[in-house]
Specification:
Distance between the termini of chain A: 23 Å
Structural class of chain B: alpha/beta
Number of helices of chain B: 7
Radius of gyration of chain A: 14 Å
Strand content of chain A: 15-25%
Oligomer: heterotrimer
Helix content of chain A: 10-25%
Distance between the termini of chain B: 53 Å
Order of helices and strands of chain A: HEEHEEHEE
Strand order of the largest sheet of chain A: 1-6
Largest sheet of chain B: 9 strands, mixed
Chains: A alpha+beta (94), B alpha/beta (250), C alpha/beta (429)
CATH class of chain B: Alpha Beta
Strand order of the largest sheet of chain B: 11-10-9-12-8-1-6-7-13
Number of helices of chain A: 3
CATH superfamily of chain B: HUPs
Number of domains of chain B: 1
Bound molecules: flavin-adenine dinucleotide, iron/sulfur cluster
Shape of chain A: globular
Structural class of chain A: alpha+beta
Largest sheet of chain A: 2 strands, antiparallel
Strand content of chain B: 25-35%
Order of helices and strands of chain B: EEEEEHEHHEHEHEEEEHEH
Amino acid sequence: MSEAIGLKAKLGLDVFKHDKEAHIKIKDGMQKDPRLKRAILVCPAGLYSENEQGEVELTIDGCLECGTCLIACGTEVLEWHYPSGGTGVQFRFG
Amino acid sequence: MNIVVAMKQIPDLQQIRIRNREPVLDAVPLTLGNIDKNALEAAVAFKESHGGKVTVLSAGSEDLEDTIKEALAAGADEAFLVLDDELDGADSEAIAGILGAALNRIEDKDLIIFGEGSGDNYSGQVGPRVAEILGIPLVTYASSIEINDKTAKVVRSLEDCEEIIELTLPAAVSVLAGINEPRIPSVTQILKAGKKPKEILEMDDLGLALAEKQVITLSNLAPESERKQILLKSADELVKALSSQSLIGR
Amino acid sequence: MMEKFDAIVVGAGLAGLASAYTLANEGMEVLVLERGDYPGAKNVTGGRLYVNPVRELFPDIWKKAPLERFIASEGVCMMAGERSVSINYAGNELLEEPYQSFSILRARFDRWLAKQAERKGAMLVDKSRVDDLIFEDGKVIGVRAAGDELHANVVIACDGVLSFIAEKAGLRRKVEAPNYAVGYKEIIELDPSQIEDRFGLEGNEGSARMYMGEVTKGKFGGGFLYTNKSSISLGIVIGIKDLMEEKPSIEAPVLLDEFKQRREIAGLIKGGETVEYSAHVIPEGGYKALNKLYGDGILVAGDAAGLAMNIGVTVRGMEYALASGYYAAQTVLQAKEKEDFSAAALSHYQTQMESSFILQDFKNFQEAPQVLENPRFFNHYPEMLGNIMKDIYEVPAGSKNRLYPTIKQYMAFSELWAMLGDMRKVMKI
Ligand SMILES: Cc1cc2nc3c(=O)[nH]c(=O)nc-3n(C[C@H](O)[C@H](O)[C@H](O)COP(=O)(O)OP(=O)(O)OC[C@H]3O[C@@H](n4cnc5c(N)ncnc54)[C@H](O)[C@@H]3O)c2cc1C
Ligand code: SF4
């Protein structure tokens, strides 16, 4: 069996270039919106999680820019842009 | 005032992955050394406030003709290139010899700016060697440069002190990464870069041949590190973990 | 003031590069803007490109293109919880040149294709994100990128599935989760000889395998595996609507980890080293979900137009991207002759697309998304097939049942009736 590696380690294999600003943000006051909970299930990078207060949090480092959270949750709860040119994930294989 | 900036073509370090402890360089995109970009920015900023010209000088493989567009887009007026596919990986002595010979062909050069070390090898030798070849004064570790008519005033930042040095032009300076924030060129500037003048020479044109290397790299291996891969949830946990390994707070 | 381009292409994916290549080949001034560090840096595919539909559109590129392996063996695997049934297909026609399909890695392929377009004279600026369109009297006249304004007769939006550019031009349909899937995968490095041994391949032959059923816990989608030269692309494509529903509630990354641990997969990737993890949304709403293809001064191609299709477990999008990029370029060439870049003139693109294999395919398969939404395909059938095979192969201590009754017990009247219903729907595809 190929060694099961954790998600964080898997993301660590990719090249990420730092952007000055987070390119996806949870809109103010929307942290508890039920639509956001979908992101926890759909994000292939596992970047969304729910804290003890029932608020959904997003860690942007490791974002694969796939767009799944945008499709699942919509623009009412997420402010979603691509990172600026030359930043973000850079696939070597694709 | 004419400023020459020496820049090195290097692989994009963030794109290099390690396989069996060796770097995989296959198909890694090329770029210019990051501190070299600070050197260029220092020159371009001066040109913008005081006028003059910025020439970028580089020696490397044929790909350099393309890579150097980055510098032309970021404000250099012209490029002076020595191309030879053997040059990537040449040692500091060889490169300094080539740059020295090339500089002898550039007529007016008041200041030559280097990055403090190249992005890949970081030997930091090329600047000093070139200054020696040209017989001009040199200041290293510059954190600011003020250029006057015939002199330059340079702040040299060392670990726990700063020296302020005045030197007569022509001179050479190597700069620190912290000296400025290099600009990101706009699309229009990138498009114009392709049309800026480039003088391209080969080793023959300079009457040079690549000498046998005096420094040979025997092995270049990534350290064998078993990453601990401990996942921590908060800053507090991090502090605890680090101090338990007595990595902090001794 | 800067010159005005004949066309500005947003996005150096397959659609964008195909149009830039075609335009530059005809001597047009074309600028491609790409937000990644290099073309392909942001692009993900599963990995199979069918060459036949696009071979003639780009006759010069296939000989040297960095394709990985030609697909010489096909496999489908129905996975139940504890068992699976596989069908492998090998045919002599798959071994004959010109080969039908190839595995492909986009970061390599797109970079290479971009070089070919540049050689033809296209200008490419990477690391540069287009932020907005510039309009004049309701007509698109250029783009804004990092504060810079750039002008062109036509903007070709090839910016992929999320196409913010088509949206800004008002050409994009409202986003609805059922029209999209997400694909995510690992690249697992292995020695070429190991790949050849494990899959029974020779030389540059490659293998393609699809997995359905338990891989996605019965949700709409499946697993895929393609062999590259010295790696394996292993991943999952799954409907976003199904994934975000909580029945059963399962996180996307977990599905892939469990898939990798299945016996059917584990042996194939054993000793391999994962070197990349990537993900990307796929449009798969079919014909009814396509976006508008043109407007005043703007054309839309590839995923940006919604031109990808999921028929069962195979996704096709790359040929459509390449071909739609080509037809968009042809339209610009024609418009340039008449110096008319209005929506009316650019509607020629729609006509060309209708008569090409692209929209023909989309019409032929327009029922597919609705038919395939049927969860029985991803849950019930794999499970049933597995059980039938188990009973067939099982030799108990006592006497073994006759085969016919064994199978018949799974085929109660209600089951047959439901199967018939499913069959009739499948026949619409
Ligand atoms: C996991 C997975 C498996 C798949 N399997 C297959 C398969 O086996 N066979 C098949 O044919 N298809 C498959 N597909 C679908 C196929 O990959 C896509 O249909 C195809 O890549 C679409 O190409 P494109 O050129 O339209 O878009 P993309 O390849 O997405 O290119 C869009 C480009 O635009 C750039 N861009 C976006 N916005 C901007 C902006 N604002 N400014 C500048 N640049 C921008 C992006 O960086 C990117 O380079 C698969 C997809 C996935 C995700
Ligand atoms: S874009 Fe994809 S990887 Fe990034 S946060 Fe959204 S779902 Fe996760």
